[in-house]
């Protein structure tokens, strides 16, 4: 089974799509696919579909959605490679287990799992001082994203939380990839990307610190200081907060023409999502 969730929903069994078109079954499949090879409880599926006020027929209706998914799986097994179809049945692929349902990926691929694996390799490379390797692995992971997670799925409460969690992991990986690029001296190369990012995330202090550093290292000291004043104004007006100690330290070190110290300060947040909106 091939599972793609980091963008539009696409789940394929035996090379054939099993992604339904109706909104509710898509929600069920998205949640099962996110937790492939694990039991997803009936309670979680019910909350996703109907929130805190499920109808009396919720369990029966959920069973109907599962049946619809199994029909798609059966068709995929029949249309795909015959030898594979003989080994797996729809009830094996989408199994009913005590307390819930399990989508068996059959040792297939999942873009979420691959992203998390590559991000982990990238973080370990940073810890080991291998910034080139970190950039390579984190970039590969970030390239798996083709849009927001579950981009074409009607999100209930459970998937909304999962989408936010996944987006934060993406931001963290992006933050660390930029940090590694800065360590490699690619300041000018980062300016265009960081210009977009600081406008998209106007209160994300890590990104603003990296932007200030890239500007300064590119010989644009006054613009770096202007960037600090801009993010400070935003933080005060929108959150009632002064910039963090790390961001203020970067400003001071730029004023003192101390780029090495500024780089250390920019790295000190360690990928935390500081006041990101």
UniProtKB/TrEMBL annotation:
Q: Does the keyword Transcription regulation apply?
A: yes
Per the UniProt record, one Pfam family is BTAD
Which GO MF terms does the UniProt record name?
Answer: DNA binding
Biological process terms from the Gene Ontology for this record are: phosphorelay signal transduction system; regulation of DNA-templated transcription
> Which SMART domains does UniProt cross-reference here?
BTAD, Trans_reg_C
Q: Which parts of this chain does the entry mark as a DNA-binding region? A: 1-105
Per its UniProt record, what PROSITE patterns does this chain match? OMPR_PHOB (PS51755)
| Alphabetical list of InterPro entries matching this protein | AfsR-DnrI-RedD_regulator, BTAD, OmpR/PhoB-type_DNA-bd, Sig_transdc_resp-reg_C-effctor, TPR-like_helical_dom_sf, WH-like_DNA-bd_sf
Which family is this protein grouped under?
Belongs to the AfsR/DnrI/RedD regulatory family.
PANTHER family, per the entry? TRANSCRIPTIONAL REGULATOR REDD, TRANSCRIPTIONAL REGULATOR REDD-RELATED
Question: What protein name is recorded for this chain?
Answer: OmpR/PhoB-type domain-containing protein
Q: Tell me which species this is from.
A: Streptomyces populi
The uppermost taxa in this organism's lineage are: Bacteria, Bacillati, Actinomycetota, Actinomycetes, Kitasatosporales
